[in-house]
Amino acid sequence: MKLEDLKNEKLKSWIKEMADMCQPKDIYVCDGSSEEYDRCMQELIDLGLSHPLKKRKHSHSFRSDPSDVARVEDRTFISYPNEIDAGPTNHWMNPDELKKTMKELYKGSMKNRTMYVIPFSMGPVGSPIAKIGVELTDSAYVVCNMHIMTRVGTKVLDVLGSNGEFVPCLHSVGAPLADGEKDKKWPCAPIEKKYISHFPDENLIWSYGSGYGGNALLGKKCLALRIASAMARREGWMAEHMLILRLTNPEGKRFHIAAAFPSACGKTNLAMLQPTIKGWKCETIGDDIAWMKIGEDGRLYAINPEAGFFGVAPGTSYDSNPMAMDSIRENTIFTNCVETDDGDVWWEGMSEPPAHGKDWKGNDWTPASPDKGAHPNARFTAPAKQCPIICADWEDPKGVPIDIFIFGGRRASVMPLVHESYNWDHGVFMGSTAASETTAANIGSVGALRFDPFAMLPFAGYNMGDYMNHWLEMGDKLGDKAPKIFYVNWFRKNADGKWLWPGFGDNSRVLKWMCERVEGKIDAKDTPIGRMPKDGDLDLTGLKIDEADFKELMRVDIEAWKNQANEIENHYSKFGDRLPQRLKKQLEELRARLSK
Ligand code: GTP
Ligand code: SPV
Ligand code: MN
């Protein structure tokens, strides 16, 4: 389709204005067809960027620039006229100033490149809950990934019509080409020139300088979380960093669970759970993002706005996550994995290593090499419909009614395997005080403990204090129809640094306990931090776990929790008068219970 044929005048004039600034050699409007995917991929193959895999049908391997391997939180901006509206946990710049700086960078940034226009829908095309975005990008890699991760093409333009609303998303890798200049293997800009910018008042996204993941696939973290969370607050719904799954018990009763864990802390794995307890079944609805609205019956309904998985490769195996392994057998893009000599990909934790291959930097690699073969944030991009346990209703625009919310993170100590909140406010308190060790999903230090409220620290599009208040208000609206709230930690370690809990499929045991709590089948034990399983209520049938290890896994260390309460006070103090009083009260109540 040509630019002139676009029916939406606002879209047409925005594209023209952006093209005047970025000066691409041509403009191409994506139709979303498989021929288009193949053509873009062929261009990338011809440039030497994409390597077709002999062992996996219609699949390709990429290696990014070593400087461009993950999200860049330090270069991510939430831009409102007033800094306080971005809040203390976001990087802020004044919108005029930020735009001025970025316009200088965008000027001529697409020279000798094509500007692709990607109309996409987050959520099923045409559904009332879906949002339309249009990404302008100079990266064919982004086009191919967006084809998998979102619903792209002419069908979206048809829904947009002549006067529909869309979120404008401008993206440039920030590497213009001089006439006749040969392209780099992975064009991008140096870190100090990268900007991932959001203007929530205008529903506008500007991204510059990175070609990787959430920095560049703007439907995902930028639109579906940062912009959508701001929209959701204005409109009374929720946009959360949550997986969605359906669990069916042996009697056929269904439970819908939404869980928020920080990046690289187990969402994809839990979403594709293979229960190790008899008669229980799990189906996947989403693995990263949930949009939730209150339905006519007063319950909270969730949809997955995405169409694919952008999943962490390392650690994914037929043992840990067979459903993910089956999802990536074909039509998949791999980034920063090992390429084996026989034309496949490999990563740490997948299987026995190949005798020889090329590592994520393109160097010769053998199991004796000192460095990891795959980057710790190596990823696969795969269509969600390829997941063998994708739920039949996963694209139902009505969504699924949520029974259970789970928060969690990586904590080597302090946090027990599972506890339940006393009520909604206490659950919001648990979410607002979630803490986790940092991972390779962001460029920065790994393994450092930080508060990551609701697993949304890098993704909240407005002041986190206001965000906490929005959760409280949603609870007020939901009343007794609100989901029950739990907190889990699959990552507690013993003194030798070994996991105390087997995790993965065995996490079903914890979910079973939650479902039985929701049904009112069993009581729980009150502890200072919340309700915990009574002895024998957590189903450990067939599991070999040392008694002492299990005790340690479930231990509530009062002294450590008193210390935790002090850290929470410190964390809360950042939010000043934007911190809801109801959460301060929760902290006081926790302290009172700890001192009893
Ligand atoms: P993002 O896509 O970054 O949002 O990550 P995610 O939350 O989907 O994390 P994912 O499921 O991809 O897991 C990240 C890493 O944690 C992988 O290496 C997993 O193998 C590992 N992991 C997931 N679940 C468990 C678990 O129950 N126990 C242990 N020990 N590791 C786990
Ligand atoms: C995350 O970091 O939480 C991801 C990967 O899901 S990215 O799309 O890069 O944000
Ligand atoms: Mn994520």
UniProtKB/TrEMBL annotation:
EC top class, as a word: lyase
Q: Which GO terms describe its molecular function?
A: phosphoenolpyruvate carboxykinase (GTP) activity
The principal location of this protein is cytoplasm
Query: What Enzyme Commission number(s) apply to this enzyme?
Result: 4.1.1.32
**Coiled coil feature spans:** none
SUPFAM superfamilies noted in UniProt: PEP carboxykinase N-terminal domain (SSF68923), PEP carboxykinase-like (SSF53795)
Q: To which pathway does this protein belong?
A: Carbohydrate biosynthesis; gluconeogenesis
Provide the binding site for GTP.
A264, C265, G266, K267, T268, N269, R379, R410, F504, G505, D506, N507
Per the UniProt record, one Pfam family is PEPCK_GTP
Q: How is the cofactor bound?
A: Binds 1 Mn(2+) ion per subunit.
Q: Print the keywords alphabetically.
A: Cytoplasm, Decarboxylase, Gluconeogenesis, GTP-binding, Lyase, Manganese, Metal-binding, Nucleotide-binding
| Binding-site residues, Mn(2+) | K221, H241, D288
Give cofactor(s), names only. Answer: Mn(2+)
**Which InterPro entries has this protein been placed in?**
PEP_carboxykin_GTP_CS, PEP_carboxykinase_C, PEP_carboxykinase_GTP, PEP_carboxykinase_GTP_C, PEP_carboxykinase_GTP_N, PEP_carboxykinase_N
Q: Does the keyword Transit peptide apply?
A: no
Question: Which positions fall inside the Phosphoenolpyruvate carboxykinase GTP-utilising N-terminal domain?
Answer: 14-233
Compartments annotated for it: namely: Cytoplasm
Question: Binding of substrate: at which residues?
Answer: R71, Y212, G213, G214, S263, N377, A378, R379
Which stretches does the entry tag as region Disordered?
Answer: 352-376
Domain of life (superkingdom): Bacteria
Could you say which protein family the record assigns here? Belongs to the phosphoenolpyruvate carboxykinase [GTP] family.
> Which HAMAP family does the protein's record reference?
PEPCK_GTP
NCBIfam families associated with the record: PRK04210.1
Q: How does it assemble?
A: Monomer.
Q: What is this protein called?
A: Phosphoenolpyruvate carboxykinase [GTP]
Q: What is the native source organism of this protein?
A: Brachyspira catarrhinii
* Protein's gene: pckG
